[in-house]
Amino acid sequence: MNQVLFTLCVGALVSSIYAYSTYKAQPELARGVGNGNYNYSAVIHASLLFYEAQRSGKLPADKRIPWRGDSMLDDGKTVGKDLTGGYFDAGDLVKFGFPMAATMTILSWGLVDYEDAYQKAGELENMRNAIKWGTDYFLKCHTSDNEFYGQVGNGNKDHAVWGRPEDWPKTGKVRPAYKVTTAQGGTDLLGETSAALAAASIAFAKSDPTYSATLLTHAKSLYTFADKHRSTYTAEITDAANFYKSWSGFGDELAWAATWLLRATNDSHYKAEVDKHFNEFGKQLMGKSTQFGWDDKTAGVQVLLAEVTGDQKYKTLAQTFCDWIVNTAPKTPKGMVYLDQWGTLRHAGNVAFVCLQAAKVGVNPDAYRKFGEKQIGYILGDTGRSFVVGVGVNPPAHPHHRASYDKK
């Protein structure tokens, strides 16, 4: 079976493993609970191979997934743009911009805070490449200050086709591309993409300052677009509403983007923007979420602001969320925090990461690290089976994944 990590989370497993293993000061081998040791570097290696298995477009000569090839090279032709690249969603073929941007934000957060651990594990360049594959695509999608392509492919039609992306019809079936403009706006999508580019600009600041500056320029432009022309993106990209509608609204994405721009620039203007959003969306941003993921970024805003500003009020908000997650949120009989029937391990990995980040800034560190360790251990095999394809004991053998389908 192709040895790739399959749809555990939107990047938080990668980041939470290093958040925990850096705390343990053993990034190459950290102890799990219950069943002994896990080679976290091997898990990160497999996780990053998953992202490479998800790549769309023209693949590089040094690709590490031999059974993947070039695909969807006509993306964007229906609108006269080059929209090749980016990542397929889950085990499917659509490129949904909203969750893709959330993925890049979390991957970048992990790299920004734990670069040394990636270096020690020998995965630093692979991690940078994973982020850049996404951010390069977002730069293509941002075709003007007030135009952004947020989806390529039709959800229902593409989901009805089973097969490898390389086998997609070469003629007569160019996929549609959907954009947001000032006509409707798309604040949630634009805000998340701004956050992704701002976070990535920090990740590349030392290794590629020119690229970092380009990312930051686009992040600022997208933030302005998001704030001035407010609407949920599914008002214009209606197809996405059946798959990735932002149920939490767009206040969290505006604050998320402003916070990442504050961290990237240290410009007081963006702290004022954060305060503006807290005044306007205070009920949400000062409240307690029940998840952290591609839709609701509230907990991430609270924890990141605690990290960036050191302000006790943000630490208190982060503690309210993580205390609920650790002490009150539903758990399965074997200890996995159960937050939603869809993507259960994704949710567990996401909240493990955000609460490990809270621990990093001194918020209830012992309890949150113990919780994070338990969730990671559950994913990697503490209960008798691994949920990471190709890694550990009794891993899944038949993932729902079009790109790895062998029609023979």
From TrEMBL:
GO biological process, one term: cellulose catabolic process
Molecular function (Gene Ontology), one example: cellulase activity
Enzyme class name: hydrolase
Entry EC no(s): 3.2.1.4
Entries under InterPro entries matching the protein: 6-hairpin_glycosidase_sf (IPR008928), 6hp_glycosidase-like_sf (IPR012341), Glyco_hydro_9 (IPR001701), Glyco_hydro_9_His_AS (IPR018221)
Record's keyword annotation contains Hydrolase: yes
Reactions the enzyme catalyzes: Endohydrolysis of (1->4)-beta-D-glucosidic linkages in cellulose, lichenin and cereal beta-D-glucans
Endpoints of the signal sequence: 1-19
Alphabetical list of Pfam families matching this protein: Glyco_hydro_9
Active-site residues, record numbering mapped to chain: H400
Keywords on record: Carbohydrate metabolism, Cellulose degradation, Glycosidase, Hydrolase, Polysaccharide degradation, Signal
Glycoside hydrolase family domain span: 40-405
Family note: Belongs to the glycosyl hydrolase 9 (cellulase E) family.
The protein's name: Endoglucanase
Organism of this sequence: Oppiella nova
